[in-house]
């Protein structure tokens, strides 16, 4: 794998350490040169109306001055740049070749290395990266430009129609009040236990008020029971086919004072970016009334269709909160641009369950094969095992080459084995 140092050689006759098909230094120099050529080719970038500072690692920084409407490159300036980018030159090439989505490429390294995070006027940085691509995306329509938007309803056909048209729909009365109480209690107890144990996963800004509960299959039989809900059978096969698998099963508790999440799509890991096919579907169970004020998920209606993407992924302006009463389920296409909204209430928290399915050939975000606790395995029904990926389909998921369609993968200490489904 590129960038991964080879491991220990066990057989001296198979030592390849002295053999190479290329030079990393030469590649870096080639990428640096090609990235400069691409930027030169894409000039003028006059619509940026800004001064950009660009750095490629330890190479000398340079500037793109597009303030006057005709962009030009310069090695120095006396003025403060509007935006500063420290980016790998290979990302510039990948933007140009449509192999990397700009919003993903611009920010993915910054989560692990703060120096790689763009600074200044972020929409300018995004616009710059968009202009390097073969077909820059159009901004999605603002919510107030639609004659109608999806409304909470018990009409399942209407929900499906809304998903096709807007990328999301809201089904009401999915959970009864008693069921809400059972599940919410399990969420609250687990959240409190993780905070007390010092293992809570917090996010939502510098203060980290929000809390995430990961791998819910490990965290209570209530969450296993929820996987029997018929709404899964109604929507997931209809949208993704018969063999979709759970990629994540989590709870998200949004508390007052949070910072809204940056806008994203749930198939961001599909690179090169593919917009003409949905790879996933999310079912979000509401355990409280979800409103615009308490952190309701913000969406750009209709943003699942076409070559569209928000220019500014850090503002909720132009979006709408998917508000609905407790017991409802927000069901949405993985291409929809969305984000956790700000909770502006004084004290109330907004807990939801997120059940995210992907097509069977997509790698799961949560590695269920390593995450699943041993004591939970005996509790899993065949239905849940299929949802988690312990089932062969489409010549995938086998053990020791056995990939016949429709076999369950059984877990045992240190080994795996196959069995036919119980009929």
From TrEMBL:
Species assigned in the record: Xylaria grammica
The protein's name: Fe2OG dioxygenase domain-containing protein
SUPFAM superfamilies xrefs: Clavaminate synthase-like
Domain of life: Eukaryota
Signal peptide: none
Segments forming a coiled coil: none
